[in-house]
Amino acid sequence: xxxxxxxxxxxxxxxxxxxxxxxxxxxxxxxxxxxxxxxxxxxxxxxxxxxxxxxxxxxxxxxxxxxxxxxxxxxxxxxxxxxxxxxxxxxxxxxxxxxxxxxxxxxxxxxxxxxxxxxxxxxxxxxxxxxxxxxxxxxxxxxxxxxxxxxxxxxxxxxxxxxxxxxxxxxxxxxxxxxxxxxxxxxxxxxxxxxxxxxxxxxxxxxxxxxxxxxxxxxxxxxxxxxxxxxxxxxxxxxxxxxxxxxxx
Length: 249
Prior knowledge:
It is a single chain. By secondary structure, the protein is α+β, with helices and mostly antiparallel strands. It is built from 5 helices and 11 strands, in the order βββααββββββααβαβ. The protein has helices at residues 43-65, 73-96, 185-189, 196-210, 231-234; strands at 2-10, 20-25, 30-36, 105-113, 116-122, 126-131, 134-137, 159-164, 170-174, 216-224, 246-248. The radius of gyration is 17 Å and the shape is globular.
């Protein structure tokens, strides 16, 4: 089995200031949504720092551990360490830029390979599983604590758990601006018929219509068997268009 994903994001009413960030890296099986905390200094900086730190850590882990990265407890350990690394990256920004003390962001990430997936989660962004036309919320909302530079506490404010994947599954990672849309039966009903890119765009557009003041971001991941052709293979790109598997906003 393999995964194929896409993401979409839209700023709130001003259309300029978006504190969300997302990443789709199919080569690593890595999918991330982060929402910088409103009211904290530079929420858009926090979400980007965390996203970049997670990607770098998993990329380095892939090079170091190879296939072991995706095997059971190995994948769980990597996601725990990646989340720790993201928190450390926020703390490092605070130490070097004291005016940004209190950086905070949600993190909801999926590391997937074959039948195995691992979710890492902190804050009130969400992870959903859509299976056989039913939507299941995987993550539990919890209070987002801010990063405090120099804090040596070993207590973690995030959760990491394994997920068994099946062909036809759709996983949606989204910020709180988009989460209500996942309760819309019209969205859930068509996820298996449309591309991940189109589903992500529909979720974000519907979220913006419902709550235009909020940033909204969604990453949609489809699980398919090796016998299925991916949406990218079935689509022809315009001539001369550059294309890569990593999409970031």
